[in-house]
DNA sequence: CTAAAGGA
DNA sequence: TCCTTTAGG
């Protein structure tokens, strides 16, 4: 689930307008999982075409990408490669959670408890190969660039944000900061009031910006210390963190003692795991590639329509409308005649 | 998640 | 017109 830094770092609410003209590297798996979890029908089933192929992720990807493009926001999607072997435990843990959620979902469904079913259904999401292929195709037809990460997509996106090839990394997880992203943007979507499922509560979902330099400045930490802080709380590579240590305590300990080894000398509950240095390496010297080009092309509207409408049962008028709106808005924003000149170089 | 329909 | 609910695939 990523490292739980939410309570100790400062986030600033930002209007989408301030992002106009900027480029963002999106952690694609993070986004696709969210679409898969949230875009569901009344009984908790994801959206599907006539052949029962899931389409929730395509719906989310299409609307979000075109909506943001319409506001002058350029996205590049970064896909995961092979996860580090240290992530195996976490991957197994997630599989167990999905399995249990699936069981509960099915039993709630069979007893007619649809509201309960829907709640469990959200946790059953798993990204299949076809979904990844479909997401690739959708983005290709839209003319949106894709970067294939050698390992963690979040690390690659952070690297791109660290180099300044993009303005910020986009993810719901704070790990991007540990990976060195200069800026992290969360909730990059069309803002508005959203009602929480099963509650009478509404929340204002607005994009949030986290700046790495000012975060470190405020906390009075180095990035190495931020990584150790994350390891104390728990990361995907040591999911349990340390017994009895949450964000607040971890921050205090890191500020006082500097690094995990020194904390361990004083606190018996802190036993440095043997793979401590390997975890640090994942964040501080992640496997990334500089072999990518960020080139936005004119959308291939006919291929897109053939794919989404011909193969996946989307409504043709809707698809043409959202894509066309995005194209004209961007051409207008650039003050130039074509999308190509807007996106080019 | 958004877009579109439905109610106040 | 604004806000809430439902459909979409």
In short:
The chain has 345 residues and is α/β, with parallel strands linked by helices. The chain contains 15 helices and nine strands.
How are the elements arranged and paired?
Elements: E1 12-13, E2 23-27, H1 28-38, H2 56-70, E3 74-79, H3 88-110, H4 114-121, H5 129-142, E4 146-148, H6 153-163, E5 168-170, H7 175-178, E6 183-186, E7 192-195, E8 202-205, E9 208-211, H8 212-219, H9 223-233, H10 247-257, H11 260-266, H12 276-284, H13 301-311, H14 316-334, H15 339-343
Parallel strand pairs: 2-3, 2-5, 3-4, 5-6
Antiparallel strand pairs: 1-9, 6-9, 7-8
Helix pairs in contact: 1-2, 2-5, 2-14, 3-4, 5-13, 9-10, 9-12, 13-14
The protein binds a DNA duplex (8 and 9 nucleotides) through residues 34-35, 38-39, 41-42, 46-50, 53-56, 58-64, 67, 189-190, 192-195, 312-315, 318, 321-322.
Q: Please, could you describe this protein's structure?
A:
The structure is a single chain. With 345 residues, this protein is of the alpha/beta class. The protein has 15 helices and 9 strands. The strands form 2 sheets. A 7-stranded mixed β-sheet has the order 1-9-6-5-2-3-4, with helices on both faces. Strands 7-8 form a two-stranded antiparallel sheet. Helix 2 runs parallel beside helix 14. The C terminus is likely disordered. The protein binds a DNA duplex (8 and 9 nucleotides) through helix 1, helix 2, strand 7 and helix 14.
